[in-house]
Specification:
heterodimer, A: mainly alpha, Arc Repressor Mutant, subunit A, 2 domains, elongated, B: mainly alpha
Chain lengths: 189, 268
């Protein structure tokens, strides 16, 4: 789980790694982080929302960027926060490009989203009314509120969320409070 | 306790998330110990968090694709990125002077110009390193799929295979021990075509011989089209189609076309 990655150990190369070439140690570190954080990042990108395919593309780009960054000798205090921030920025670009392509083609936006409820009738039946209501409430939230919620759900602290979204700590608290109030009301009905 | 002294929702959220300083946290905890109303509101916040997390996990877990494909792709791309850096960091490479560099370049150019001529004239063994591959190795290419329903697959009118990245193609050649082979002699193909839910995964890719005369890529394409039509017309379930083509596509062809040899492919 992402919580196990602390600031202090994020980029420490284990002593066994020092016997290998620096590139292979970085390769292994990047692959290890990919294994650990791919699913949390996919879940976060579901909040944009992006298609599964686009989300996977973004994640590939993010880890390649991390590889280049580490290879150039730079380090990070908080790799997890860096990865979420990079994913956030790339997802915004990806979404902008997707929308432009769709508009150019004169097509409707792709409906297959990670955050969508069930795609076929059987799954739709299984999806309860409350869950459907919650999905529509989350979808209708302002983006900043939704992103705060998704990042917090992945275990990021308020300070990390503020860095990823480039907003103040007070805004993080305010957006989370509003988001949870919407969810509480939708669940009560 | 008066109404004015109740905790705000933000204070309650901060204490739930462990974001208060120890001093502030102590103040809020002692208020909560005394105030039922604030405890209930704190409970409501935690319930809302629980609702969201359950919703997110339940909805998302239905759709999460397997990690094998993206992981293999990332490894291949990392290998590709690392290559030029590794060469440029070799100490001997750095120490070569510019003059020696030009001399080496000249020799390389001469060799590159003369070699094809010599090769065509004196060496007449073009297939010396060619290994015919008509069926993939099941250990290297067992097949891999993405989580798509029949309905999602059949929604697409026509699905063209995405080009396989060069780095991933190279990895497939390496795995099959075809490092020294003529690349044009093979086409890196999907075992289970994406039109039937096949994944962009190294476990679903194999080097198909371009020169195979009987069981070739065109014959496999015909099988893929046929199976997809059967799936979309409800004559065959998707899992069976994926299993049959992954197990042995030639046997699957014989079974579904009711023939021991490929039927004539219509050419336009």
């Amino acid at each position: 789980m992402a919580d196990s990655l602390t600031e202090s150990d994020a980029l420490v190369v284990p002593s066994a790694d020092r016997r290998r070439s620096p590139e292979s140690a970085i390769d292994e570190k990047v692959i290890g982080l990919f294994d650990e954080l791919r699913v949390p990042l996919l879940r976060y990108l579901a909040g944009f929302p992006l298609t599964v395919h686009d989300s996977e593309d973004v994640i590939q780009e993010v880890f390649l960027a991390l590889f280049r960054h580490l290879r150039s000798g730079k380090s990070h205090q908080n790799v997890r926060g860096w990865l979420f921030r990079a994913a956030h920025n790339l997802a915004l670009k990806k979404r902008f490009r997707s929308r432009r392509d769709v508009e150019n083609a004169g097509l409707m936006l792709v409906e297959e989203r990670l955050a969508d409820p069930a795609p076929n009738p059987e799954d739709q039946l299984a999806f309860s009314q409350t869950q459907k209501r919650l999905v529509s409430v989350v979808r209708a939230m302002p983006e900043q509120n939704r992103w705060c919620l998704y990042l917090r759900a992945e275990g990021l602290r308020y300070r990390e969320i503020a860095e990823v979204l480039d907003i103040s700590l007070g805004s993080v608290c305010l957006y989370l409070e509003r988001s949870l109030a919407h969810i509480a009301r939708a669940a009560e009905r | 306790m008066s109404e004015e002294s109740h905790l705000s929702d933000q204070e309650l959220l901060l204490v739930v998330d462990g974001e208060l300083s120890p001093r502030e946290s102590g103040r809020v905890q002692s208020h909560l110990a005394a105030c039922w109303a604030c405890r209930v509101r704190k409970q409501e916040i935690e319930t809302a968090i629980g609702e969201f997390v359950r919703l997110q996990r339940q909805d998302f877990n239905l759709r999460i694709p397997p990690a094998d494909g993206p992981r293999a792709l990332l490894k291949a791309q990392l290998a590709q990125q690392a290559r030029p850096e590794r060469i440029s960091r070799l100490p001997w490479f750095r120490s070569v002077s510019l003059r020696v560099g030009w001399a080496v370049l000249a020799v390389v150019l001469v060799v590159a110009t003369v070699t094809p001529f010599v090769f065509r004239t004196y060496v007449r063994r073009p297939a010396a390193r060619f290994t015919a591959v008509t069926v993939p190795n099941p250990r290297l290419t067992p097949g891999a799929t993405v989580l798509l329903s029949e309905r999602e697959i059949c929604r697409e009118v026509s699905v063209n295979n995405k080009p396989v990245p060069i780095a991933l193609q190279q990895k497939v050649f390496d795995e099959y021990g075809l490092r020294a082979a003529e690349p044009r002699a093979y086409e890196v193909d999907y075992l289970i075509t994406p039109a039937l839910g096949g994944a962009d995964d190294i476990h679903n890719l194999w080097p198909e011989s371009s020169s195979a005369t009987v069981w070739n890529a065109q014959v496999k394409d015909a099988l893929e089209d046929h199976l997809r039509n059967m799936v979309c017309e409800g004559q065959l379930d998707l899992a069976t189609a994926q299993h049959e083509i992954a197990s042995n596509w030639i046997e699957a062809y014989k079974k579904y076309f009711h023939t021991d040899r490929p039927v004539e492919v219509q050419r336009y």
